[in-house]
Design brief:
181 residues
């Protein structure tokens, strides 16, 4: 298996173990995937982190013919390659999260989607904003999110019923207006 496949395998194995071990006994309703949305990935990510530790990897990851472990310099390069671009990813997530929060933290008549998008893009993006940028429309989670929901593929947390957001109202009443300049 490739290194990335092994990491993915253990990530998914973490979900399985979380479900098996967390869904037993008196507190089974809080186990497996019945937890807060931001905790669903925690056990899996803990198993992923094992693969950044050379001591752990060297204890079992050996060449199938020679029995040799991964050379230290190669292991360091793998870790460096895995970390490449993380800062940009975090900035992008901050941009989406900020935009989503701003859409939902004010009265509907105070929401200007284009202005908020430009503000978030300018604040978190190292590139010059181009007027007319509507890439927020390509992000379904931004169009479907509820107040407080995470911007990810995870299901949104269970929230008390709230009033319809401005964006939801706009989609319901005039969906074409989202795509106008």
């Amino acid at each position: 298996m490739l290194y990335s496949e092994v990491v993915t395998f253990f990530h998914e194995f973490g979900h399985l173990m979380h479900h098996i071990l967390g869904s037993q006994g008196e507190w089974s309703a809080a186990g497996g995937f019945n937890v807060e949305g931001d905790f669903v990935e925690a056990p899996s990510q803990m198993l992923e982190e094992m693969f950044r530790n050379r001591t752990i990897i060297s204890s079992f990851a050996k060449h199938y013919q020679t029995g040799e472990t991964i050379p230290a310099d190669l292991f360091e390069k793998m870790n460096a390659a895995g970390a490449y671009g993380r800062g940009s990813w975090v900035q992008r997530q901050l941009m989406f999260s900020t935009f989503s929060l701003q859409v939902h933290d004010r009265a509907p008549d105070k929401v200007d989607l284009n202005a908020l998008w430009k503000e978030s893009m300018t604040r978190f993006n190292p590139f010059t904003f181009v007027d007319g940028n509507r890439c927020r429309q390509k992000t379904p989670s931004l169009l479907n999110c509820k107040a407080g929901a995470p911007l990810s593929s995870l299901p949104p947390p269970r929230l008390p019923r709230r009033e319809e957001t401005h964006l939801q109202s706009q989609i319901r009443s005039d969906p074409k207006s989202l795509f106008e300049n």
